[in-house]
Amino acid sequence: MPRRKRNAGSSSDGTEDSDFSTDLEHTDSSESDGTSRRSARVTRSSARLSQSSQDSSPVRNLQSFGTEEPAYSTRRVTRSQQQPAPVTPKKYPLRQTRSSGSETEQVVDFSDRGHLTGKHERHFSISGCPLYHNLSADECKVRAQSRDKQIEERMLSHRQDDNNRHATRHQAPTERQLRYKEKVAELRKKRNSGLSKEQKEKYMEHRQTYGNTREPLLENLTSEYDLDLFRRAQARASEDLEKLRLQGQITEGSNMIKTIAFGRYELDTWYHSPYPEEYARLGRLYMCEFCLKYMKSQTILRRHMAKCVWKHPPGDEIYRKGSISVFEVDGKKNKIYCQNLCLLAKLFLDHKTLYYDVEPFLFYVMTEADNTGCHLIGYFSKEKNSFLNYNVSCILTMPQYMRQGYGKMLIDFSYLLSKVEEKVGSPERPLSDLGLISYRSYWKEVLLRYLHNFQGKEISIKEISQETAVNPVDIVSTLQALQMLKYWKGKHLVLKRQDLIDEWIAKEAKRSTSNKTMDPSCLKWTPPKGT
């Protein structure tokens, strides 16, 4: 019955920039407006790589221009330049991110003077810091002047070519472009085959001195032409971020993830989630809906999906009825998956504080199966050993499955596990706004069902708790909210309000055809040892 976990495969592909400019005399002017779509796409990936250049190895940085990535039709699910200021030390949190999704953080002092683009007097993120890129503010200004001059010359050459070419739909490269293509190929052949011993020592000394607080030295790792393309992409990406900041679309330290591409859906996020900075600043994340790995672009996601072997969550399948399944995932055995699940959940939960310390928890992931795999509906987590008998630490229903009864199914399943354990459970506080609404609705339904089937004259809160596994405190608060608990002549009385019971019966009759209920007979589970 149980389906055991699988390990997702991953790989990275190296990609090389190419660009055919119309300017023969100026080798540096590589970003032609007539560049092929592949060149533009690679240049953008280079820009994103520049923002995550704090990875530990300089060689790894250059080899990771492309990584894994599916093209889905998506549905949308909703819920002025500043004046120079006195130079003050500024602290930036640097996060070193591995493919696992985990991160380590250290704080480094940088001056906020200068900008990588050479057009601003101050910077507000690491991507714009000259010192991080092993440059000075004056060097950035000189490079900016050189770029502007080359852009003007390129535009002039484009106008000249347009005057000499017919307005055909499929235009062949000009003679100047063909000559430049040959020159670029010749320049790339001149790249050094390897680093000398002195260069390796210099690189190692730089890494030992600065660690992840500065970008690795990149000279002699590739051709000068490709390195210049990479530097230009870094400057362009930094300029785009600065424009967004000046327009007020982002603020210093703010979370920029606005949407995520998740399977067939495009989801608007609700709250901040502490994804690594190089991902958070993108504004849009692409996620594998099976292994929950997060990526920077649609291309990476498409490549990843072509290789990803996961079709369901890791761990044991402990419940299945129809297309609905529940998997028990151990945070200690599947740490990366659970960390990614917590980061995803934080985008839609306000009070969640657990992200990386997942080992003491079990995660119960509900999915809906079709011919493509098991799609994530929601999940809840619980401590392996809870001294207060909490049966839920965190609970989430994905936005595309909300208001369809799945949240109540997750809650019902958590109490079903408590019944098997022969314990009384309660959710951990504080509850989110949507969580509180869902739990109050569930408790109301449980109490009305119990009172409808109860035939005696005297009722006990303790008996209700033992039969339903609901904590007595939650039972009393629900009865008070329903105005069914009264204090009369020194005794507490439970009023059996028939109007509420009749209303509940009518709703149940309408929902009788739906399959949004948990069947205890479909649960194949024994409590983990030590709980």
UniProtKB/TrEMBL annotation:
The active site is at E428. One of its GO terms (cellular component) is chromosome, centromeric region. Residues 42-57 have a biased composition (Low complexity). Residues 252-527 form the MYST-type HAT domain. Its EC number is 2.3.1.48. It comes from the Eukaryota. Keywords: Acetylation, Acyltransferase, Centromere, Chromatin regulator, Chromosome, Cytoplasm, DNA replication, Metal-binding, Nucleus, Transcription, Transcription regulation, Transferase, Zinc, Zinc-finger. Residues 1-107 are annotated as: Disordered. It holds the Pfam family zf-MYST. GO terms for biological process: DNA replication; positive regulation of hematopoietic stem cell proliferation; positive regulation of nucleobase-containing compound metabolic process; regulation of transcription by RNA polymerase II; transcription initiation-coupled chromatin remodeling. Gene3D superfamilies: 3.40.630.30, N-acetyl transferase-like, Winged helix-like DNA-binding domain superfamily/Winged helix DNA-binding domain. Its main location: nucleus. It catalyses: L-lysyl-[protein] + acetyl-CoA = N(6)-acetyl-L-lysyl-[protein] + CoA + H(+). It is an enzyme of class 2 (transferase). InterPro entries: Acyl_CoA_acyltransferase, HAT_MYST-type, MYST_HAT, WH-like_DNA-bd_sf, Zf-MYST, Znf_C2H2C, Znf_C2H2C_sf. Signal peptide: none annotated. It is found in: Chromosome, Centromere; Cytoplasm, Cytosol; Nucleus. SUPFAM superfamilies: Acyl-CoA N-acyltransferases (Nat), CCHHC domain. One of its GO terms (molecular function) is histone H3K14 acetyltransferase activity. Residues 96-105 have a biased composition (Polar residues). Belongs to the MYST (SAS/MOZ) family. This is Histone acetyltransferase. It comes from Carlito syrichta. The gene is KAT7.
